[in-house]
Amino acid sequence: MDTVTEQKNLGNVIGGHKANIHNPNTSEEAKQHSKEVLEELGAETRSFAGSSGGPEVNIEGKNPGNVAGGYKASLHNPNVSEEAKERAQEKLEKLEQMGAQ
Questions:
Q1: In which residue ranges is the amino acid composition biased (Polar residues) (predicted)?
Q2: What is the pTM of this model?
Q3: Among 19, 25, 70, 69, which residue's Cα sits nearest to residue 43?
Q4: Mean pLDDT for each consecutive 10-residue tract of the chain (101 residues)?
């Protein structure tokens, strides 16, 4: 992690880079840089399947109840795509299997 990142809130840094990747006004060079920074920080930039074939849920350092609440909110949000709702449901089920609810 570079000095600038260490001085800032890591969640904000990750959020900014994720937003940059999805911004249609950002150059491909800038998007690639953001992907590299996120990989270096160990943040996921898209959904990855875990070794069990299900969705990977990383709750390290997070409140499991808040994570579950976020997925539940996605399920009820009319602005969330059906594909995203399906992923949220899968991750919520994985959290329940982990006993993190």
A1: 1-10
A2: 0.44
A3: 19
A4: 60 86 90 86 53 56 82 90 91 80 50
